[in-house]
Amino acid sequence: MAATLKAFWNSPVGPKTTHFWGPVANWGFVVAGLADTQKPTDMISENMTGAMCIYSLLFMRFAYMVKPRNYLLFGVHASNECVQLYQLQRWVNFRMSSHDCT
């Protein structure tokens, strides 16, 4: 157990690196997005939500391509992508229902 913790501590993506703390800080985007799912649909900004979708897709690719691969960063951006796509779906449904598109 101690050897495993020491290996994680000293790894290239461990807590002594930005490869660890960057993804940890990015969980704030996911938490904020989850909190926004409780807000009224008419408050969703389609531009910001779309930008967040693109941002997370780009950083998912970066996290996978960087050496060493940063699965923590990939996971946080995959989570954010899901939250933002849900928000975008809520916005589209709201726009379609408010324009009586059938």
From TrEMBL:
Subcellular location: Mitochondrion inner membrane
Membrane topology of this protein: Multi-pass membrane protein
Keywords attached to this entry: Membrane, Mitochondrion, Mitochondrion inner membrane, Transmembrane, Transmembrane helix, Transport
Highest taxon above the source species: Eukaryota
UniProt record similarity statement: Belongs to the mitochondrial pyruvate carrier (MPC) (TC 2.A.105) family.
PANTHER family the record matches: UPF0041 BRAIN PROTEIN 44-RELATED
Function: Mediates the uptake of pyruvate into mitochondria.
Protein name (record): Mitochondrial pyruvate carrier
